Amino acid sequence: MILDCDPGHDDAFALIVAAKFADLLGVTTVAGNAPLELTTRNARIILDLCGSRAALHSGANKPLVQPPVFADYVHGKSGMDGAVLPEPSRPADSTRAIDFIIDTVRANSDVWLVPTGPLTNIALALTRAPDLAKRIAGISLMGGGRLGNRTPTAEFNIWLDPEAAATVFSCGAPITMAGLHLTHEFQASPTRIAAVEASHPRVGSLLAGLLRFFSKSYVDRHVGFVGPAMHDVCSVLALTHAHLFESSQKFVAVDVNGNHTRGMTVIDDRQLVQRPAATATVLERIDADAGFAAICEAVAACP
Ligand code: RIB
Ligand code: CA
What we know:
- Helices cover 39% and strands 15% of the residues.
- It is an alpha/beta fold.
- The strands form two sheets. It has an eight-stranded mixed β-sheet, sandwiched between helices. It has a two-stranded antiparallel ribbon with strand order 8-9.
- Helix 2 (36-49) links the parallel strand 2 and strand 3 (55-58).
- The longest helix has 16 residues, at 204-219.
- The two termini are 22 Å apart.
- The model has no long low-confidence stretch (mean pLDDT 97).
- Bound molecules: alpha-D-ribofuranose (RIB) and calcium ion.
- Residues 6, 8, 10-11, 32-33, 71, 116-117, 142, 149, 155-157, 231-232 line the site of alpha-D-ribofuranose (RIB).
């Protein structure tokens, strides 16, 4: 897989899980939770923490059309507040994430693209290389869902770059979608954060510090949450631990013009015999305890 991310606390754990359980061909970064320079720096730090030498290439520093907006109200000024993090040991390999995605897909079979931030890089790659949609095994993305978070109808990753998301959802490649209706079931409760902390003598407390910062952002702003939703990890687990999920096949489209629905993923849930052909595997349920056990196993594997 190629993990395209905007670390971001939950992206960080998606990286750690991918480094442990996936054949991680490379990591690309995009502006989203924080500016590109910070999401790239954060990715470099996390790759060091999990001892991964995967290639790292930075990509788009803004959405295709609308101006960039960041989520420092959730992830903090650094994009990954909550711990004193070591300085990264190495720079990114290049600023040419799009070329890296295209070249890697053309040189390898069965590559999954796993975007956990705005879909800008993926859309640019699909547009620049029209053969990509048929070459990839699929796209396992975190985004959208049956409810919004940035707006009542739009989830942040899709909302930030709806044009890119519309390109991705209509590209014809197999799509697996981890939307908010699923990821909100995957919360880092205090017990689960304590389990992460106990999973590694060196990085456990650092990662727990990140999660406790992330948790405060969620619990203070949401009714009924016991911790932060570990959104992005779901897109990796959907490939490495597919047995943990229930899913459905649905037609999904992205609205780009609505006054109140720009950035909404429209999922066709009608119970009709004749309805549009499914365009995505929509993840519906996760075995959250087993999913967190996988996170702890990945943390324990850090050097
Ligand atoms: O809406 C949740 C998504 O936005 C996650 O990917 C999180 O990291 C942020 O990017
Ligand atoms: Ca993200």
